[in-house]
Amino acid sequence: MRNIIRYLFLLAILSLAGCGDRTTEGAHTVKVKAVEQVENYTYLLVKGRGPACWIAVSSTEITPGESITYEGGLLMEDFYSEELNRTFEKVLFLDALEGSKPPAMDMMPGTSHGSALKVGKMKISVEAEEGTISIAELYANPDSFYGKRIRVRGEVVKFNAAIMERNWIHIQDGSEFDGKYDLTITSQESFEVGQVLTLEGVLAINKDFGYGYSYEILIEEAKAAR
Fold this sequence. Notes:
By secondary structure, this protein is mostly beta strands.
């Protein structure tokens, strides 16, 4: 009986290999079964020793039938791709494939570097409320608000749900400082693009989650002000 249990356990571990599960370590060599190209990413359906799974890398030329090797990565569940208009049950975002260079930071999902923003500036003008701080003021004086619970008001211009166990919201209010106009906020609450709302959360500075999730300023644990 003990040998049977050990065999079943080993079989379960092997079935995860090459699918980006955090329990597996080291390099994985897999074969590409399908390719989906978008502006900044290449999505690959790959098959190793276990079930087929999706991985994503910065744009690269690759064709079905090729074998690739990768290591590590950031596993995302229920990831929605706007460009493909589909939700991946699981997709593993990689720094790079073996033998290739890591992608530029501004090509990874969720990256916000002030002037190097993926979200374009919208024609928005949101009137401030008493007690709120403008996006321009945050970028101009981040140290003044670091670690404090503050309120901001703006229009939701982008929303990504359930990435790294939190929702990601981009808001703009029409203000700008040194070319920086977009503010990223994390929350457990859900919102819709186009909503104008007041959010309250704690300001973080130079927050780096790894895998390209790096922010000059970021409001965390935000909730809609009641």
